[in-house]
Amino acid sequence: MWEAGVKPNLMTYNTVIGGALSSGGLCLVGRVKEAKAVLEEMKEQGLAPDGCTCSILFDGYSRLGDSDALVGFFEETMEKGIQIGDYPCSVLLNGHCNEWKVSVAEGL
């Protein structure tokens, strides 16, 4: 894209990070570390992540079964004041429950 003189926007980055179900974005194929790198590139280009961006990454961490990274990203998102809605919260709870960390989920 850059070579063609086209500057990606937030929707472009969200598509690369998560993609539509048919496109196999990074988070959908378990490449969350690479998705985070794309997120950092997006920030360097002056674009702030939105609730959609964060929801995609929440889902990616959940798919990996990495509740610790999920909680870390949740806390980072809250500190930055990004409005995330209900879906990431349910992913967070579900992630803990899937790892049999029910007492942690109840504490949230």
UniProtKB/TrEMBL annotation:
It comes from the Eukaryota. PPR repeats lie at residues 50-84. InterPro entries: PPR_P_subfamily, PPR_rpt, TPR-like_helical_dom_sf. It holds the Pfam family PPR_2. The keyword Thylakoid does not apply. Keywords: Repeat. Belongs to the PPR family. P subfamily. NCBIfam families: PPR. PANTHER family: MITOCHONDRIAL GROUP I INTRON SPLICING FACTOR CCM1, PENTACOTRIPEPTIDE-REPEAT REGION OF PRORP DOMAIN-CONTAINING PROTEIN. This is Pentatricopeptide repeat-containing protein. It comes from Cinnamomum micranthum f. kanehirae.
